[in-house]
Specification:
Belongs to the DNA repair metallo-beta-lactamase (DRMBL) family. GO terms for molecular function: 5'-3' DNA exonuclease activity; damaged DNA binding; protein serine/threonine kinase activity. The protein is α/β, with parallel strands linked by helices. The chain is built from 18 helices and 17 strands. Helix 2 links the parallel strand 3 and strand 4. The longest helix is centred in the last third of the chain and has 33 residues.
């Protein structure tokens, strides 16, 4: 789910809540996880591309088209606001039809919100030159903050380009000339390009069951009507790639075997099998490392790594070229602190953010100094990174209005145990580190040596708040009393 923007900003991106106080609303694309609740909690104005608006109005016919203001890719426009006007520019997000990234420039700084994206070097070339560096050379004007799609930020393998993945699908079909039916699991907005290339290569239209896939049929009729047909005799059929895929695939193969027909070909162009789904065996795990051709699984489904999101490698390269001062992940599956760029560049300097950005985060520079001290001790621990990312459980509710967005997602019991062991070790390390670094301030500030935000940090981790050391005067008086006792 998308996250709420900091409360110091006058706009929201892809979030729709009844308590929102934002004056301007931006929608990056038409996938349902980014438009959830838009029908019940929508406010004027909503900025989006014309295609995204049309797709959304098809999904939610109860919405009024007058709520939307169209934006053009590559065009800048000025938004008037009581806190000061700001400029917005939309750029192609390389994700799905109508999807864009938004660049915000104003008194609050320069912020890029990627929405969902496949942030390739070619995609970055669309951004203004001043924000994009070259190899070994930083940009003239680094972005203050990037709200980044980190969906596959934990996936370290190199993913094929979209074009390469589409060619793998076509090659797989060529290698199975006897397959009477080819089932393509391309029923998600953003996979139309695969269907178009298959249709053009083999000179055949794609059969889409209008009753089963009513919404996707409507989307295709809007975007690429020339490839559609309603004739089930067509060799190419749209197939649902989500609900009980393997069960339905096995049923299709068994049906062909029972009737002594050639097996159908079932192709799934998606990165989910490679990056997210459970490993079935060591053999299949080895197969998943093949990214240059289609791979068959134990259920008879052929997989191709077609991704609409960036891999970790692509994200790291993009961040090196953009060199932003701060990065926030918009996806709970991967926190920004897990990226090497963020570890190296966003926490080494106390002044990573300018004063205006600290104000947006509702934090003082004094607080940022304290967190700068702590970060060095915990930057390798995902559990404690999560705590710092959200600035304790209380501050998290201020930064992200949905606390669930900041939860750590653990994939296995072994991973949970591993993180628990690291957390226990790091908690004691944080405690010791804080005592050392803060001893000077304890001498002067007494019990107020720790700020409220740091005390909240300790409590959120169930760690006792360190008690202040006695003042120098108290120590000297105690020493005098001891000497008197001995002389007596």
């Amino acid at each position: 789910m998308p996250i709420e923007m900091p409360k110091g900003l006058p706009f929201s991106v892809d979030t729709w809540t009844p308590s929102s106080s934002k004056r301007h609303h931006f929608l990056t694309h038409a996938h349902k996880d980014h438009s959830s609740s838009i029908a019940s909690h929508s406010f004027f104005p909503i900025y989006s591309t014309r295609l995204t608006k049309t797709l959304i109005l098809q999904q939610y016919p109860q919405l009024d088209a007058s709520l939307f203001l169209d934006v053009e890719v590559g065009q800048s426009f000025i938004v008037d606001d009581p806190a000061g006007a700001f400029t917005v520019t939309a750029f192609d997000a390389n994700h799905c039809p109508g999807a864009v990234m938004f660049l915000f420039e104003g008194k609050f700084g320069n912020i890029l919100h990627t929405g969902d994206c496949r942030l390739t070097p070619e995609c970055l070339l669309n951004l203004p030159d001043k924000y994009v560096g070259r190899k070994g050379k930083e940009p003239r004007c680094p972005l203050d903050c990037v709200f980044l799609d980190c969906t596959f930020g934990n996936f370290s393998q190199e993913m094929p380009s979209k074009h390469s993945a589409i060619q793998q699908v076509i090659n797989c079909i060529w290698k199975h000339p006897d397959a009477p039916t080819v089932y393509l699991t391309c029923n998600m907005l953003g996979q139309e390009e695969i269907l178009v290339n298959v249709s053009q290569t083999f000179g055949a239209k794609i059969y889409v069951d209008k009753a089963k896939y009513a919404e996707f049929f409507t989307n295709l009729a809007l975007i690429v009507p020339e490839i559609l047909c309603e004739d089930p005799a067509s060799r190419f059929h749209l197939f649902d790639g989500s609900r009980r895929l393997y069960e339905r695939a096995e049923a299709k193969l068994m049906e062909a075997k029972a009737t002594l027909q050639s097996e159908p070909l079932i192709v799934r162009p998606s990165a989910q099998w490679y990056a997210c789904e459970e490993k079935f065996s060591d053999v299949e795990n080895t197969r998943k490392k093949r990214m240059d051709e289609a791979v068959k699984d134990q259920f008879g489904v052929w997989h191709v790594c077609y991704s609409m999101h960036s891999s970790k490698e692509e994200l790291e390269l993009a961040l090196q070229l953009l060199a932003p001062r701060w990065v926030v992940s918009t996806t709970p599956s991967c926190r920004a602190m897990e990226l090497d760029y963020v570890k190296k560049h966003c926490f080494n300097s106390k002044g990573a953010l300018n004063k205006s950005m600290w104000k947006l985060l509702d934090m003082t520079l004094e607080t940022s100094d304290e967190f700068g001290t702590l970060v060095k001790s915990v930057s390798c621990n995902p559990v404690l990174e999560e705590t710092l990312q959200s600035f304790s459980s209380d501050a998290r509710q201020e930064f992200f209005k949905d606390p669930e967005d900041a939860e750590v997602k653990l994939s296995s019991p072994e991973r949970k145990n591993e993180l628990h062991q690291v957390e226990t070790y790091q908690q004691s390390e944080v405690l010791e580190d804080t005592r050392v670094h803060k001893s000077a301030s304890y001498l002067n500030n007494g019990s107020s040596g720790l700020s409220a935000s740091v005390r909240k940090l300790y409590r959120s981790m169930n760690v006792p708040v360190p008690k202040p050391l006695p003042s120098l005067v108290d120590l000297m008086n105690s020493h005098k009393r001891t000497k008197r006792g001995i002389n007596y």
